[in-house]
Amino acid sequence: MKSPSLTELQVLFGYGIRKHEYKRARKAIYDRKPRQAYSNAQLERLEEEFKADKYLSVNKRIDLANTLKLTETQIKTWFQNRRTKWKKQMTSTLKEFYKHSLLNPTATVSSMIPAPAVQPIVFPFINQSSLASSLYEPTTIEAQTQPNERI
């Protein structure tokens, strides 16, 4: 007996079935603008802005469009696509960490996640080493509570 194909399995279990059997009308190729090829300088500036902030204000988008000689729509689209790529990268990193942590229970988050692009804020009036150690040391409720005293 022949095993069912992927399409047959999808139909059997209800996956991949469209509610309506029509395709979305696409613009004709000749109506569309050609794909934008960004220069290295444009890409570097866009990446720099993306690292600083994942979302642009309208004023920042206008300024960036004028500076890079691109349209606002191109800037907006680039940021939308870059956020999608960033989210996929983060999801992939988290999946890798999860898979790695299942195989190696002593794995740490810092061993899997790349260093941040932005340096962390350091407050000079807080002892950073004691703060960091207190965040990661396990504590028990018994160690934090005091015995009841009678009055």
TrEMBL record:
Keywords assigned: DNA-binding, Homeobox, Nucleus
Principal location class = nucleus
SMART domains named among the record's database cross-references? HOX
GO cellular component terms attached to this protein's record? nucleus
A Pfam family it matches: Homeodomain
- Compartment list: Nucleus
Point out the DNA-binding stretch(es). 31-90
| A GO term, aspect molecular function | DNA binding
Ranges of residues in domain Homeobox:
29-89
- How is this protein named in the record? Homeobox domain-containing protein
Q: Which organism is it from?
A: Acrobeloides nanus
Higher taxonomy? Eukaryota, Metazoa, Ecdysozoa, Nematoda, Chromadorea
